[in-house]
TrEMBL record:
The keyword Zinc-finger does not apply. It is an enzyme of class 1 (oxidoreductase). Residues 67-173, 351-470 form the Plastocyanin-like domain. It comes from the Bacteria. The keyword Cell inner membrane does not apply. Monomer. This is Multicopper oxidase CueO. Belongs to the multicopper oxidase family.
Length: 472
């Protein structure tokens, strides 16, 4: 049950992180470590891309959502909800070549597959009205006509999405294109995806699920492994960080505050690289960095830490062990990818996101989600400016905004220009309590019903979602 005390705890924890300006390292809070496992005893699992059936004009995959028994904590078995029996699977797609996925539901609950960040037709977007019932299947077609970016697949069913994702149903979807591949960034085995999330385990390895238990999930998993170590070469790596947690934010620091390079966010490459020593990663977001391990030399061990962990929790996320020399032809160019001009906004909208303590609901403009109500009707090709207002100054609760279909540009925060790390295309923006952000979005090509919502998954389940009908 969501109590006032728990609401105030989430405000005290996450709002402080949200308020941290870019480039400022927030010190770790004091407390006794309560991780369910000793850190750095398990090797990182780097997923190999799933192999499609290559057909004329597209790649075909079959993803079966089902329960599976896997090893997450050493010495125990955990029942998860999975794609094809695995944790954190990976699909690699190419711009201009569509992907068709048959999603077969072998769960006991409905499932509606959503390609987060995908520019997809309504029928394949994962609207709750199209959720796949237990024992049924559905085809999803992804045109892959957008820029290269790190996307991810997750559930968008009406009532079970938060638990489905918490129990393991999250796949990474890497979209590549010619422009990006021609850049001299790290490639192949040196381009590594890292899904970050948290969990609470019982003593026998079972996952403990509580919609409101965000601050009791003290085990950090990276690609399904608890606080793993990763053996790397003394050269540059491209790390794609994906936050698949329900509510957990990360404020990431490498070693004692070592510098790394921020190169991309939700919608792909930034206009230019941003040297930094700290990185915010909120639920649903993707951030990409390049780390040059040659600066540290063979034998060095570097811990990636969350510098704002929950109270009484250790901050380790994973450790990089530099174990060998390697040649390195890669480099980070001074310019990456320009941001497209979305034109002049012809429509302005305002969305106030707030928690109603009387009903226990999270609301947008005072209303909870209603699948039978259309809240806004944007027109194709018409740029809009959205002002996202966090009305929860009393509780200190952060909220985010994720519109489906198209990425957006962050125009400003509280009237000030966004930080360089938000200069690229985004699809999820987090707003601290009592503050606002303005974004510009232009919906293109596809019409029909789409959603916009907070990506704190318990907030969505408690009503913080709206429905828009894109029209011509």
């Amino acid at each position: 049950m969501l109590t006032r005390r728990k609401v105030l705890r989430v405000g005290a924890t996450a709002a402080a992180l949200a308020a941290a300006p870019a480039g400022l390292v927030v010190g770790s809070r004091s407390g006794t470590a309560r991780a369910a496992e000793s850190p750095f005893t398990t090797p990182l699992k780097v997923p190999a891309p799933l192999r499609p059936v290559r057909l004329a004009g597209h790649d075909f995959y079959r993803l079966t959502t089902r329960e599976a028994d896997v090893t997450l904590l050493p010495g125990t078995t955990t029942r998860i909800r999975s794609f094809n029996g695995a944790m954190s699977p990976l699909i690699v797609a190419r711009r201009g070549r569509p992907v068709v996925i048959e999603q077969v539901n072998r769960l006991s609950v409905p499932f509606s597959m959503h390609l987060h960040g995908g520019h997809t037709p309504q029928r394949s977007d994962g609207h709750p009205m199209n959720q796949v019932k237990p024992g049924e299947s559905r085809l999803f077609r992804y045109p892959n006509e957008q820029r290269a970016a790190t996307l991810w697949l997750h559930d968008h069913s009406h009532e079970d999405h938060a638990e489905n994702i918490y129990r393991g149903l999250a796949a990474t979807y890497l979209l590549t294109d010619d422009f990006e591949e021609q850049l001299p960034l790290p490639k192949g085995r040196y381009d590594v995806t890292l899904q970050l999330r948290d969990a609470k385990f019982q003593g026998d390895g079972r996952l403990d699920w509580d919609l409101h238990g965000f601050d009791e999930r003290h085990t950090i998993l990276v690609n399904g492994r608890p606080r793993p170590y990763f053996e790397v070469a003394a050269r540059k790596y491209r790390l794609r960080l994906v936050n698949t947690a329900n509510e957990r934010p990360f404020l990431l620091q490498l070693g004692d505050g070592e510098e790394f390079t921020h190169i991309a966010t939700d919608g792909g490459l930034l206009p230019e690289p941003v040297p930094t020593r700290v990185l915010q990663l909120w639920p649903g977001e993707r951030q990409e960095i390049v780390v040059d391990f040659s600066r540290h030399g063979v034998g060095r061990k570097l811990v990636l830490s969350n510098t704002y962990p929950y109270e009484g929790e250790s901050g380790e996320v994973m450790r990089f062990d530099v174990v060998r020399e390697a040649s390195d032809p890669s480099r980070v160019p001074g310019k990456l990818r320009p941001v497209p001009d979305l034109g002049t906004s012809a429509v302005e909208r305002e969305f106030t996101m707030s928690f109603d303590a009387k009903t226990g609901q999270h609301l947008i403009n005072g209303r909870p989600f209603d699948m039978h109500r259309v809240d806004i009707r944007p027109r194709l090709g018409v740029a809009e400016t959205w002002k996202i207002v966090n009305g929860d100054g009393e509780y200190g609760i952060p909220h985010s905004m994720h519109p489906h279909l198209d990425a957006f540009k962050v125009l400003d925060r509280n009237g000030k220009p966004p930080a360089p790390g938000e200069a690229g295309l985004k699809d999820t923006v987090t707003v601290p309590a009592g503050e606002y952000a303005r974004i510009q979005v232009r919906f293109t090509e596809h019409t029909g019903l789409y959603m916009y919502h907070c990506h704190m998954l318990s907030h969505v389940q408690m009503g913080m979602m709206g429905q828009m009908e894109i029209t011509r």
